[in-house]
């Protein structure tokens, strides 16, 4: 507030009054603001909510960043662990394929060797038979006679047994 001046100029007095009124208005407004508990609580709440929202946003972004970093790290670890396993699997498949091909070659070679051996044996036997036919023909004839004798014996045994069964059946039915 300004002090009233010594001269009694009405214009100056009016200006002083207006200035005093303005200062008093400001003081009253400041006092009203201090005594308005509701408005002060709202202001504090708004400030606190704003601060919390800012912290939540920062925490959310921090969590997203950390999650992205962890995802990348885990992806790199998985990639590092998958590569050796994939390489090992590829080596195993290649080894199995090579082994199978070697087995096929070996089986083919063994078959070839067996066929060659059989041909050679057949050739030697044929040469031997052609050179000495008598022992082979004698052996073949003896085998044929043995088969014929076995068949006759079997037939005679069968007919004897059959005749006995018929006699028994006919004697019972009388």
TrEMBL record:
Please list the residue ranges that the record marks as compositionally biased, kind Basic residues.
164-174
Q: Where is the signal peptide?
A: none
Comp. bias intervals (Low complexity)? 85-96
Disordered as annotated region, ranges:
1-22, 44-112, 153-174
Q: Where is the composition biased (Polar residues)?
A: 1-10, 54-72
Cite the InterPro entries for this sequence.
DUF3618
Name the UniProt record assigns to this protein: DUF3618 domain-containing protein
């Amino acid at each position: 507030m300004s002090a009233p001046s010594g001269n009694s100029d009405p214009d100056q007095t009016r200006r002083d009054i207006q200035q005093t009124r303005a200062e008093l208005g400001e003081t009253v407004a400041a006092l009203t603001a201090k005594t308005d508990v509701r408005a002060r609580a709202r202001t504090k709440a708004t400030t606190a909510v704003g601060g919390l929202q800012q912290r939540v946003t920062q925490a959310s972004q921090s969590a997203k960043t950390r999650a992205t970093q962890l995802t990348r790290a885990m992806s790199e670890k998985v990639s590092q662990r998958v590569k050796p396993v994939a390489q090992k699997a590829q080596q195993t498949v290649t080894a199995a394929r090579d082994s199978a091909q070697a087995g096929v070659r070996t089986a083919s070679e063994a078959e070839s060797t067996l066929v060659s051996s059989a041909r050679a044996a057949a050739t030697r036997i044929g040469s031997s038979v052609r050179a000495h036919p008598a022992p082979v023909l004698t052996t073949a004839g003896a085998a044929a006679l043995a088969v014929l004798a076995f068949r006759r014996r079997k037939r005679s045994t069968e007919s004897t047994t059959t005749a006995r069964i018929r006699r028994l059946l006919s004697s019972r039915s009388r």
